[in-house]
Amino acid sequence: MLLKTFAKGGIHPPEHKISSGKEIEKLPVPETVTIPVSQHIGAPSKVLVKRGDSVKTGQLIAESTGFVSANTHSSVTGTVVKIDSVTDTSGYRRPAVVVKTEDDQWVDGVDLSPELKKDFELNKDKIIQKILGAGIVGLGGATFPSHVKLSVPKGKKAEYLILNGVECEPYLTADHSLMLEKGEEILTGARILMKALEVDKCIIGIENNKPDAIAHLSNLSAGDDHISIQALKVKYPQGGEKQLVKALLDRSVPSGGLPIDVGVVVFNVGSVFAVYEAVQKNKPLIERVVTVTGKSVSKPSNLRVRIGTPVSALIDAAGGLPEDTGKVVSGGPMMGKALNSLDTPVMKGSSGLLIIPEKESRRDAVRACIRCTKCVSVCPMGLEPYLLMTEVQKEKYEMAEQDRVMDCIECGSCSYICPSNRPLLDYIRLGKVTVGKIIRSRK
Amino acid sequence: MKFFTVSPSPHVHGRDSIQSLMFGVILALMPALAVSIYFFGPGAIIVTAIAVGSCLFFEYTIQKYLLKVTPTINDGSAIVTGLLLAFNVPSNLPVWIIIVGSLVAIGVGKMTFGGLGNNPFNPALVGRVFMLISFPVAMTSWPVPKGFQTSYADAVTGATPLGVIKEGLGNGSTVPQLMDQIPSHMQLFMGEMGGSMGEIAGFALILGLIFMLYKKIITWHIPGSILITVLVFTGILWLANPEKYPDPLFELLTGGILLGAIFMATDYVTSPMTIKGMWIFGIGIGVITVLIRAFGSYPEGVSFAILIMNAFVPIINKYVKPKRFGEEVSHG
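ok -> structure tokens follow
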């Protein structure tokens, strides 16, 4: 059978899914948590607590300040010891609430029983209200507030809900393990979202290196004509929204557009599980599954972690920091962010923690571009990375804009493939910042 | 306190490097070199060794003493240039001419523009055309392929198949008559003919092509477009007048078309960056080659065709853009 995939570009880096098949373990609540109040794309949320306040698990501690913004809840019970700015996984210093923990005590109204609850009666608006209240954002890494995606703009119509179970980043297995263990919950979450979007078609895209997840979800959804599971050929960056929509439906999201422009809304399976918990169990987003992995990690794991837990606690649970560690990355090896401290807290968008050995943590020397065309042929957006890099180096921003620098999804395929080790994506990112400023200044 | 390396993503890199790609090209050239040694004996070894040695020497010397930069001869590109230069000359070419050719290839063709990655013209072809124009006699006396009996210093020489045709047509003979003096297509495919060292054996060059495609060193578009264009164009001429124009298969198997299409035109630095650009480039090379062969005064024209199209590459890159995501629009 010829598997579906996206048409243009892409690479196939070694998969290294060494934590695959490991059951999700619950990480104990740490002594202190550091909860950044801006864990989403959009306006930062406003802190509602002050030093000395007691907070309960699930209590709102920072509220959304606009349409594109999100609530933040306390992930533990305890006392607020300070409100400080900390370096989060993005590398920027941002305000965070530091809580010293006591015995876990949840806010009222949260259903903590493990029972599966499949039936729901809420209407569209109530569902969106619940999701907004629970502070759910895209857990695949982009952290786009979920209620925004569900509020389809006037004049546009959603036809399909797509669940992203691709997990195309090497090493990461958080979504994979969630699909295996929480299949019914994810399917229920999908039905809730279909109701909120008023669509009757849902496709779950999963790469073919997770045959157990494909089989499991196919079994569970058998008999439901509205949900289909689609196996996809393994190719990076298939988890990118535009690539996934192209692979599943052969529709192309226009330059600068969103999936809704072609009638599609995409949700990561982790976010869908969070939607289930918010709507069916009244539980805000205060924990997530994080893969802790790496070649020298003694116990690669999938951990259920409270938001705000320092990454050092995750590494301890996975057998401690290996002797030869050179780099610690939040996320996968292709798009993750390197951390400078093990005190960095786990955030809503943290899908994995990758420990890279010293000998693999530095880049090789940069050589001249030999114009081999490999960067052009792997670019999933059809751009010319070699040219964009030169244009940015020479500060030819208008040319970079014409050559569609803003279309770059920063997947890193160009830098990965370059035989001269050229920092193509680094320069393209710089270019996007400056070109973005130029575009905004025109308005 | 332990410090971690912090750098932007991606944090992994593919296995390709300039060395690995160049080493792949060198490996792909080996079958043709073996055939050359089989047919031309010691001459082939001497010419290759001198060309590769002097290309390395000139690149190292120019980088170290003239440009005062760290020499990069370990990237393998000078070896590829040396091999291709050797492949493009007769196996009895005097040593000093090879050295001069190497100096022009590396010094003028490559280093004056700033070294690897910046040269507009294929360095080996710059060297070859320089030698062809400066030393026309030495560059066109082709040893007869007699294996190790072929002496380097005073080889028995003869014309190439294309030379036989060009000269014969000039004397009023027809192509079918001249074909009697030329080895069969099978012999041509196996390399039993006079010609430049590396261009004779079609099967060995095609082996190299298959290897490079398998290793994803090159894509099929440039060799494919050149070969298709030559087949179509010479096919039309042959159908129009078989007395005057040889058949397309003969055209493909003789002269430097296979060597040029597979190894010279696919030079990364001097070929276009997009698939569409590669087609334009390849069709251009095919058309110019056939025009020179059929209507020019040289029996052979691949080198000139590639150099001419090299000159168009910057403009092709400027105007021929890849298909952007979303341009193949289909809204379901």
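Residues 124-281 of chain A form a domain with the Rossmann fold fold (CATH 3.40.50.11540).
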